[in-house]
Amino acid sequence: MSKVAIITDSNSGIRQDEGKKLGINVLPMPFTIDGQTFYEDINLTHSEFFDKLTNGAEVFTSQPLVGDVGKLWDEVLKNYDEIVYIPMSSGLSGSCQTALMLANEYDGRVQVVDSQRISVTQKWDVFDAIELAKQGKSAKEIKEILETNKLNASIYITVNTLEYLRKGGRITPAVAILGGMMKIKPILQIQGEKLDTFSKSRTMSKATKIMIEAIKKDIDERIDPEQKGKNVHVCVAYTYDKQPALELKKELEEIYPDSTIICDPLSLSVSCHIGPHALAVAACKKII
Question: How many angstroms from the chain centroid is the CA of residue 213?
């Protein structure tokens, strides 16, 4: 039986210490802040990141260097026969495509999963991959199982301010100003490789209700139409402020008592574009 290692990136929300407990490697995502390079959870904590972001620093996301990815793979393959690498969605970053090209140099020993997921849904892919490896599945089999299930997921995110979407060029300055004056809080949707505008609200409480109804609809009609939520993982994510996320988690636990609900910070790559005090709800179909 092949010895399979699981590797992901920090977009999964898995911190370095959690990765060690799980027995996996987590590739830290790089950031350029005021011209200086930082790596998530290595020399940049979440609190330091938000302190810099909210105090006007120029923050840019970037892909991991190919050399850093290859170096990690080479080191891991000294002790393992194969690798399953689970990066963030190819629709949100070029890092997945870069990894796919790099994997061609490894004669099938590295299988890159294009799961088109990020944050808490990507994290569940990692958990599933770990269990599948324990069951004796090969790296290729794990990749195929995860990719077969990849579209059985949804994420809805409510953004507290339009300022960071404006900075990232996602909306025009005029729209940002108008939205700020009207106190509009956009609700974004991630399904597959697309990040789209889903709805909008003037309050976070109303936005939370919209997100709950949207995720319930997706679960009932697309993700788990047979069991209406018994066969899904329901998740909550947030930027900076955990308390509203814990309140949302409690609401969802009442609706989905059979689900173990993850409540994690959104990755810094996402946080960079949406800013603090954002809130998200997600769901993905269970594999195991």
Answer: 21
> What residues contact 54, with CB distance under 8 A and at least 6 apart?
275, 276
Give percent of the chain with pLDDT exceeding 70: 92
Is residue 152 within a helix (H) or strand (E), and if so which, with residue range? none
Structure tokens at 272: 């960079």
pTM (two decimals): 0.91
Compute the C-alpha angle 214/220/222, nearest 5°. 85
Q: Which residues pair with 284 in a beta bridge?
A: 153, 233
Q: Residue 126 has what DSSP assignment? A: H
Tell me the pLDDT tens digit for each residue of 78-128.
999 999 999 988 777 788 999 999 999 999 999 999 988 989 999 999 999
**Nearest-CA neighbor of 125 among 136, 116, 134, 135?**
116
Residue 22, judged by CB atoms within 10 A of its CB (0-12, 13-18, 19+), counts as middle
DSSP per position, 231-247: TEEEEEEESS--HHHHH
Beta carbons within 8 Å of 229's beta carbon, 6+ residues apart: 216, 219, 220, 255, 256, 258, 259
Residue partners of 211: CB distance under 8 A and separation at least 6? 156, 158, 187, 279, 280, 281
